[in-house]
Amino acid sequence: MQYISTRGQVKPKGFIDTVLMGLADDGGLMVPVEVPAVTEDTLQKWKTLSYEKLFLEIFSLYINDEIPQEDLRELVRRSYSSFRTPEVTPVHQVNDSLYILELFHGPTFAFKDVALQFMGELYSYVSKKQNKIIHILGATSGDTGAAAIQGVRGKEGIKICILHPHQKVSKVQELQMTTVDDENVLNLSVKGNFDDCQKVIKELFADLDFKSKYHLRAINSINFVRILAQTVYYFYAYLQINKGEQLPKINFCVPSGNFGNIFSGYLAKRMGLPVNKLIIATNENNILERFVKTGEYKPGDFKMTHSPSMDIQVASNFERYLYYFLGEDPEKVSAYMKELQQHGKITISPEDLVKVQQDFAAYGASNTQCLELIGDYKKSYDYLLDPHTACGIAAYEAEAGEGEVTVTFATAHPAKFDEAVRLVDIKQPFPPQIEQLFTLPQHQKIVEYDKAEIVRELETFYQL
Ligand SMILES: N[C@@H](CCOP(=O)(O)O)C(=O)O
Questions:
Q1: pTM here?
Q2: 341: domain range?
Q3: What is the CATH number of the domain that holds 299?
Q4: Which top EC class applies here (predicted)?
């Protein structure tokens, strides 16, 4: 298996080089030259596999022999040993048509742990094998940062710097990142929003001199390994629900910000998973909903919502979808991305919009609706939704058809977003791992949204 860039200017790379490259050197995103096909027979065989074994099967299709099987097995074992359930991502049945895939059983209580605990182990493995330093640079609207830091804190040969938007993440998200006192961790709290943070890091990854001088590595979903690790739970959820001989199609409904999680579902579908609808759920920052409904991809005004992890306008992985949607044509992708940069928007033709609508449905929940659903589901099903999952439920209710079965992703534990949950008069007990964070000192540097200042902080940290 080889990997190329969506913009076509990178020579094919193997798996490890692709992981280390993160953002493609031509500014695009890395994708496999060919998506491996999973047949119905294979799916039948995978039905009885544990999460870890399924992970190994799927990864083996993508990594050639670059990591020996026994090493990979050990990396996977270590990655998921910190999860609070052996199923890693258990499925909860709400009623005949709705299942909730709980993705919050990892150490930082959000779906990001599923890929990032593995990435932490992988980076550590590569750093030791190649005897090379890994300097991680990432941007977060709250969950990625916490999970990435947790995945590499205290690990030799690795330093991590995470940019988060100052006072625009939840209190628990902030504490999860900033109470870590390991010397290999730097938190920059940027006076801006998530899009500002992501813009700075993308510019730094695109500066190839800076990137190679400081051995910059990515943990965001621009990194293909994040996407791949997230495909595993689509297969796992599907196989948990469909135990019988029949393999019917089901919907997946995914709270979405940077388009990484839902793109993993798109990849799973291209591999052969019987997916009916992929439903994109957004909050009031609804660029993805507007794109699917109108064909115009245009960042709007940033809004602060009850689901801060999805307070995103410019969705990184949209470019990966464009690549497939445009028939794997890097020239067309480059032209569209240029248009976005120059004119601030992309508009596709009505014929192309029909194709997009065959791939995705989309719905953006208002703040009011999000809170209402948290209250309703607690009352009707005694199930406490976090505000991101509540946006997912809103999209499921709006977009799933009669008689269809839908798996909606619970992307975070409600305790991470207690500010929102309290607004519906629900008092939840904090898990002890979260409760104890409130007693710890915080370590972070508050900086202006100013690339030069951020670079100075980074250079000092990486050189130490
Ligand atoms: N919602 C994310 C934003 C970054 O997305 P990623 O999937 O590219 O890491 C967060 O919580 O940080």
A1: 0.98
A2: 91-106+225-423
A3: 3.40.50.1100
A4: lyase
